Amino acid sequence: MPRPDLKAIGVNYRRIPVMTIGRDIYCDSRIILRKLEEMFPDGALGATTAEGKAIQKFLEIWTVEAGLFVRASQLIPTSMPLLNDPKFTSDREDYSGRSWSKEKIAANRPEALAAIRNAFKFLESTLLADGRNWVLKTDKPTLADIEAIWTFDWLNGLKGALPRELISEKSYPKVFAWIARFNNALRAAKAQAPKAASLDGSTAADRILKASFAEENLQFDPTDPLGLQEGAEVEVFPTDSGSRHRDRGKLIALTGDEVVLSAQVKGTEVRLHFPRTGFRIGAASARGSSRL
């Protein structure tokens, strides 16, 4: 922080990535993945069977909601130069709501390491135990692999995070081979993909605000347990991290999976999409929002 490029399109949400398709703005990787699967079915990577969908969803919940990534983040080595920068540690404390002192990180490390080693063991002894290349026994990686792998891949690439005497190719060969295969597949996919254009923030904001909306048929469930009315002024914010940074607007869509706000940026409407899981919707007031 600060993130002027996000502010320029009316986004207070502080986490990344954020995806825009036209003037529809999608906040949080979970809804980004879901929308990409829905809007571009020819390239969809999601499971097609009921069993596969269950495993895929389990891995999403395990990694995010069940706290696997939180434990992984507690393995950031205290030798990182950034931990000597008070601006960085203050920003991380604002984001996470917990101390980022070296002493606190060191104190949390043994318990976090035990949890992560158990996660490696789980994959080694269950989903990857039979020698399959990919989680769903497919011939290429799927969304289930993406949901599962990103925490392990991040830790593997973070120097000093994993003590190699406890977690290594020797102790968990199937997991590390899976990580290597995934990165090889990723490099091959990038080589075949069109080259992405890179825009500065002001150019991107101008393009977004001049675009049309990507979604036409937004849904509103009048039976939602929150009892909110369509058109109500609300605030939406994540409950796990970054909760001090809240987006406010008119509630225009609400389903079991998604909440959508209409907000104004320089007289132009944008729509902010958030997943329901891990986010709170509060009725806005002059002083802020009330918890619902």
Automatic annotation (TrEMBL):
The GST C-terminal domain, residue ranges: 49-212
Coiled-coil stretches: none
Pfam families: DUF7962
Family matches, as Gene3D superfamilies: 1.20.1050.10, 3.40.30.110
Source superkingdom: Eukaryota
The name this protein goes by in its record: GST C-terminal domain-containing protein
Organism, scientific name: Capronia coronata CBS 617.96
